[in-house]
Amino acid sequence: MEDMILLQKEVDKSLLSQGMSIPSAYHRIFCEKIGMCPQHGEKFKLKILLDGILYEVELINQNFDQRVYPNHPDVLQIRYSGRSGLPQALQVKFPKTTSLVREFQANPNNSRRQLSIPDTDKEYLILYATPQKGVLLAETISNDEFVAETKEIVKIPEMDYELAIDKNATILIETGFKKVRRLSRAIGNSLKSLYRYRCQICGQAIGEPYGSQLIHAHHIVPFTQSLNNDAKNIMVVCPNHHSIIHDRNPRFDWAARMFEYPNGFREGLKVNQHL
Ligand SMILES: [Zn+2]
Ligand SMILES: [Zn+2]
């Protein structure tokens, strides 16, 4: 099932009312997995299956003016109207974000502001491809579920946790960690495939000569502290670089996309398509 993941989205106001965009780094994988790809300006009808009900949505490759924005990547979006019933169903599945959005909108001082959802209140929608062409399966993780599943995680050493995601590790099963683990693993796998099992730091696919896809997914801000499993917090690294990172605990300089080690050594990313 994890191999079929298309997208993991943090729930926000747009997702609860009209749709979501697909980050450009994922366009290729998304299109490959659903077996269709709208060209610039095209749209297709899709169906999203949520709790046994099929909702009609559109997959749109937005028709912006390419003469004005010649280097802008495609803008791929899933859109739905209120009439489809999907926004209403999503609002029921994501009560935390729904109430945060309502509270925010009720305050006239916020009319020109964007709501940003705190890490501790996040909820997630996961979309999977299905064997039926044009039908996507939706899974939801409400904030209550996320908090309940991750309560024990903070006690696990970070690298043990990261390596355990990939295996049927008993520490995670014992803690009742199901949806979130599957989600973390799916996001990690989709990034590993995006980089074709190469380390973002040294650019090497160390398993390649051996026919192995061995590579690790590392959380920039430790997951066991932040509970942030967004792709923007995950990096694909070889086991050597991963061990060095956890041994020396370098600071990640976001502006320069570089690690800065306690001894002053700085190292950037050879490969980066998503950070
Ligand atoms: Zn490496
Ligand atoms: Zn790590």
Can you walk through the features of this model?
The protein is globular and about 55 Å long. The protein has ten helices and twelve strands. The strands form three sheets. Strands 1-6-7-3-4-5-2 form a seven-stranded mixed beta sheet, with helices on both faces. A three-stranded antiparallel beta sheet has the order 10-11-12, with no helix packed on it. The chain has a two-stranded antiparallel ribbon with strand order 8-9. By secondary structure, the protein is an alpha+beta fold. The protein folds into two domains: 1-143, At1g16640 B3 domain, CATH 2.40.330; 151-275, no CATH class. The protein has helices at 13-17, 27-34, 86-93, 95-106, 143-150, 158-165, 170-174, 179-194, 223-226, 239-248, and strands at residues 5-10, 19-22, 43-50, 53-61, 76-79, 124-129, 135-141, 216-219, 234-237, 251-253, 258-260, 266-268. The structure holds zinc ion (2 copies).
Number of helices: 10
In the CATH hierarchy, the architecture of the largest domain is Beta Barrel
Q: What series of H and E elements makes up the topology?
A: EHEHEEEHHEEHHHHEHEHEEE
How many beta-strand elements? Answer: 12
CATH topology term of the largest domain:
At1g16640 B3 domain
Structural class by secondary-structure content: alpha+beta
Roughly how many Å is the radius of gyration? 20 Å
Q: Let me know the largest β-sheet.
A: 7 strands, mixed
- Our count of domains comes out at 2
Can you say what the CATH homologous superfamily of the largest domain is? DNA-binding pseudobarrel domain
- Helical residue percent band: 25-40%
Approximately what portion of the residues adopt beta-strand conformation? 15-25%
Low-pLDDT residue intervals, each spanning 5 or more residues: none
Quick check: average pLDDT? 87
